[in-house]
Amino acid sequence: MAPPNNGKNQLILGTFIHSRKLDELQYLHNTAVCVDTSGKIVAIEPECDQAKAESTLFPRLRWSAEEVMVTVGKDSQFFFPGFVDTHLHASQYPNVGIFGKSTLLDWLNTYTFPMEASLSSLPKARRVYTRCIRRTLAHGTTTAAYYATIHVEPTNLLADLCLSMGQRAFVGRVCMDQLGPAYYLDESPEQAIAATRATIDHIRGIDANFDLVSPIITPRFAPACSADTMRQLGELQRETELPVQTHVSENAGEIALVRELFPDSTSYADVYDRYGLLGEKMILAHAVHLSEEEADLIARRGAKVSHCPCSNSAITSGEARVRWMLEKGIGVGLGTDMSGGYSPSVLEAARQASLVSNHLVMPGGKLHELPQEEREKAKLSVEEVLYLATRGGAEVVGLRDKIGAFEVGMEWDAQLIGLGMVCEEAAEDDMEDEGNVDVFGWEPWDERVAKWVFNGDDRNTKKVWVRGRLVHERKEN
Ligand SMILES: O=c1[nH]c(=O)c2nc[nH]c2[nH]1
């Protein structure tokens, strides 16, 4: 593996913003962050410029100034932790935006299975996966929990590409031995397990300690996996202690199907529990229609939820109750869920998480009958959706001590955000291509961040680092 950041220590200067807790952002101005050659944050010093860093921090770190790479954020820029996309299908990337009026089960048959099946072609898989990684990096996604396809070699290729392009990733070879079309199915439970093992072995071969890329056990969803496959995947999880990802309680028709296929289970989540899959390392995508008992079971087992608001709206699945899950102690992060979701951007998912939480309490919404105070509480603030996009996501993928914030000991997974600053003498015709966010200079920082959340896009994402390595730099026109 290439050493992060060409083996250089780094000094980063400017404004740093990150979540201190669910409802609080911390703003660190005129701050110096030191990142060592392994990509780890080794010092954070507020009220510190380059001269002070050189005279006080470098001797402590035994750094010599000539060997340090310096990055300085401008006044209109800030550093923010990289986004964690806790649920997306790299194999569906070419289909983003294409869903018509479909709902989950017909969407799978019409758009999704044919696209995934076509990625048995390695050249096509290379093109799709390369572009998916490049695009998500450009939107500030430094960690992604990917579903690939049932094909081993193309799945392994996705892992290779994440490693070489520098994106932190969980790569899942999809298991499905029923429900899918004959042309896109595992032949047997044994073959599904053997193929999963082949991908695990491959990733161990390219990143022995899973420092950047990790395998993730991926039963597609309960209706697509036979009891035998789920039982063997449960055994594989206990043997390897790897994370697991799947879908749960996304759509009414799907839930009815699960009830029919697994009549002995008390709920959808209970199906996974019976096979020993529901545990601290499980990421459950969607969780739109959880019952009270189901959510309690998920909380007791310590499983996590990937909230996918773009997808839940696009394919008409419904509105997940995020506050309710958080209050039960369930860890929640955000997922773009491409291509159920139409956007590669976690920022878009954050903005949709806010809007969907408002919809829950509007007239006709699921929570409209709650008392006023409860309705207010159900709404997610800018601070909260940004927490879900970073620290919350880090918890969901099991990396809460490593990524999601700026703390000594964490890794430098970060993005430099630039906002268009309207200067006093600006004429209309000198608008720069800084994206949709115009800052006039009088806004306090929390309002600048709110403008970014609701109007920002990849034009504002100037640079992106993973483990200290610069993995994306926006080329200005
Ligand atoms: O949003 C979703 N996308 C998928 O690919 C899928 N497969 C099962 N269930 C699913 N839900």
UniProtKB/TrEMBL annotation:
Taxonomic source organism: Anthostomella pinea
Top class in the EC scheme: hydrolase
Gene Ontology MF terms in the entry: guanine deaminase activity; zinc ion binding
Cofactor(s) for this UniProt protein: Zn(2+)
Assigned EC number: 3.5.4.3
Family classification: Belongs to the metallo-dependent hydrolases superfamily. ATZ/TRZ family.
Domain Amidohydrolase-related: 80-471
The UniProt record lists the keyword Zinc: yes
A Pfam family that the UniProt record links to this protein: Amidohydro_1
Lineage, highest ranks first: Eukaryota, Fungi, Dikarya, Ascomycota, Pezizomycotina
Keyword Hydrolase tagged: yes
Cellular component annotations (GO), alphabetically ordered: cytosol
Pathway the protein contributes to: Purine metabolism; guanine degradation; xanthine from guanine: step 1/1
Cited InterPro entries: Amidohydro-rel, Guanine_deaminase, Metal-dep_hydrolase_composite, Metal_Hydrolase, Metallo-dep_hydrolases
Catalyzed reactions: guanine + H2O + H(+) = xanthine + NH4(+)
Record's function text: Catalyzes the hydrolytic deamination of guanine, producing xanthine and ammonia.
Protein name: Guanine deaminase
Gene Ontology process terms (BP): guanine catabolic process
